[in-house]
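Subject: two folds for Thursday's group meeting

Dear M.,

Sorry for the delay on this. The cluster queue was jammed most of the week, so I only got both jobs back this morning. I'm pasting them in the order they finished. Each block is the input sequence followed by the predicted structure tokens. Could you check whether the formatting survives your parser before we put anything on slides? The first protein is the one we discussed after the seminar.
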Amino acid sequence: MRKAALHNLGCKVNAYETDSMRQMLEQAGYEIVPFDAMADVYVINTCSVTNVADRKSRQMLHRAKKKNPNSVVVAAGCYVQTSKEQAQVDPAIDILIGNNKKHELPKLLERFFQSHTPESEKDFCSSVADIGKEREYEELSISRTGEHTRAFLKVQDGCNQFCSYCIIPYARGRVRSRKMPEVIREVKTLAEKGYRELVLTGIHLSSYGVDLQPEDGGETVGLLDLIRSVHETEGIDRIRLGSLEPGIVTEEFAEALSELPKVCPHFHLSLQSGCDATLKRMNRKYTCAEYRESCRLLRKYFAHPAITTDVIVGFPGETEEEFELTREFLKQINFFEIHIFKYSLRKGTRAAELKPQVPEEIKGQRSDSLFEELSVMNREYLNWHLGRELEVLMEEEVSFGGKKYFLGHTREYVKAAVLLPEGEIHRLENRLVKGKAVSMLKEHVLLLEAGELHC
């Protein structure tokens, strides 16, 4: 039995695909071992979102070959897609697998082992898609994940937006949606395995369905139709959505979601900048006013939803005045969480040619400034929950200050914990617990006074 180790870099979509490749190898008879162990095969699912991600991908590939020079090193995913020529001459890599070709992993390995021996010179075994011509969704699936309560479910790939800073459309191709019957089949499998929460994810989730043709003369389907179908599946208690574009949040969309009790009031709306001039240079497809309206609609139909976002500071040409507009906009919206990124020049994108590029020192100052604002917003949002009854899906046992607690997340994705009495054994994993939030146990964690227990 050959041993295989896998390592994932990048986003939740990558993580899903890595889980799928792991299960493919298991079904093909491989023993899966930790990545730092000796293995016959190392699979690195790479990332290419920034130049730094490219470098990390190369480092992991070289680390694997150094661990076992006679191993077969597989480079899969976005770095392969955007840097094929460089990857082909990298002596650490034996097999290249681009996006939309990951289902070929077992076949490529079999072909490689049949034609090579550990002592022979290893030629490349390549399966890289012409991503610009791909129109079909690559059907991958999982029946379990590394988590025991929550499963990420990929339903869409590719992006048609072409934001000026982003390489992803060139790495992932155009929008491709998974057919709804295939999604629901996997949802049922995960429900049967005991997963109570699903996170629907994709490269550009809001565009789900735009490429699907109506079947049998029926109507076209979109993300809302998919959510409704998942909602009908027995065994799933929570549906969480991946990153959304603000334009999808119309009155109809927000109202419809609010009528589906399994949908969690936790929404990640991509922002990137709170300045219209910067948004235009980024080639984002909305204005600050439109973004604000989307947040207003979510708060109209959901009671105190958790709204989170991404912000890029130091985008080319961002002046101090433009940055201040962003800072004020963030305070007006009052987010629960903000993922703050310093702009990273990415070769191959239009933004790499924009002038002037903002110095790294200024990017750091602006990032630090926003982190201070975020700390205030985050504390205000958590304090709002004190004294209120919350529902928590329990995930793991933890220790704080020498005491044992069970920790999980609320529907808003706020961390909360229940104290475990000494001498008693509690198996609360994957159970829903309701109780009142009585205090802050530690930073970012609420203490729950357990009440009614739901299994």
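Second protein, same layout:
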Amino acid sequence: MEKRKRIVIIGAGESGTGAAVLAKIQDFDVFVSDGGKIKPYYKEILHKYEIPFEEEQHTQRHILNANEIIKSPGVPDWVEILKQINKKQIPVISEIEFAARYTKAKKICITGSNGKTTTTSLIHHMLRKAGLNAGMAGNVGKSFAMQVATQHYDYYVLELSSFQLDHMQDFKADIAILLNITPDHLDRYLTMQDYIDSKFRITNNLTQDEFFIYCSDDQITITELERIVTKARQLGFTMGDKKQEGAYVQDNTMKIEFDEVDFSMSLDELALKGRHNTYNSMAAGIAGNILRIRKKVIRESLADFMGVEHRLERFIKVHGMEFINDSKATNINSTWYALESITNPIIWIAGGVDKGNDYAMLNELVSKKVKAIICLGKNNAKIKKAFDGRITTIIDANTMKEAVSEAYKLGQKGDVVLLSPACASFDLFENYEDRGRQFKDCVRQL
């Protein structure tokens, strides 16, 4: 009898656990290893499917006998066990690569430094509204592998982070969308070019039958496109009124034109406001038209989409002060969009784990719009240094409760309290969702 192929999964979060379940269902010899503590929720799933695992260690004899390794996106390449795996030349793939082998569904894949979750959710909303059997996975919601293992969808809308794209080999999107590229995760990538290369992996393996949708206003994207060759059909989107294959804006109207497609919609009708959201809506509109969704459905979807929790979520007003939860802003560019979109005076709650941030690009907006900064994090020296002299009130907070209460004391009617950290959350919170929920809970208590 032929020996079963052994698959070892490094990391037992959403991605790793999903990959383990799919591997088990596909009858591999599966083992899961996590260097940290595994959350009870994921342990329960591993027990349910009778998958052996270890936590708080990586035992080499259980790992280095694998035929293939699936690495969770949260695990950096420099951890010791991965060095050993590479030394033994065991192939390392991502959960996305693995899951794609077991589905024939069409894949609409979205990456970019900002706007991924909003655009992914918007396209998924559009597909569901059109009556299509569509799942949403990747960097949002339930893992792709878990859905392939336990559901059956004809379409997947996949949000892909650079870390998820890193270990792609044969994976191919049907529609690949690159929203933008700005400096991010420079704590994990040695150079900016490494990060750009990661993002462009979304174009890997595309043929002339697939589509590549990109922002033609994004200089890094354009420069890179000139350097690489992609056979895919290219459709750009721009805020300019320059007619192009794809989408452009003319007289406050979004226009989408390619092949026999001719679609237009007033920007005032779009549910998502602000310049960055117009880009997201254009990308979604192009995808909808490629999929031949009826114009009426595309228009309705773009007009009634409710937005994403923790992303510029206008939460509630307390005594005339508005509280906005933008916990998902984990980099400078996301926070730039948030500050840019608000017209009232801002009390800005920022900070967390710095990802190699350069705060200089926020200087103008902060000087013009921000009246106070509350630094929420274990090490706030960099933020203080960046804005010292521009803002007179910069204070520290060690907990979310303290941050919200200080913001409330500093504010007055008409002010906006904005949680838009520009940093990762792992110093004080489990993740950006935990950070956003704590913010909303503390505001409710006011």
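Two things I noticed about the second structure. Residues 6-90 form a domain with the Rossmann fold fold (CATH 3.40.50.720). The chain has 17 helices and 20 strands.

Cheers,
T.
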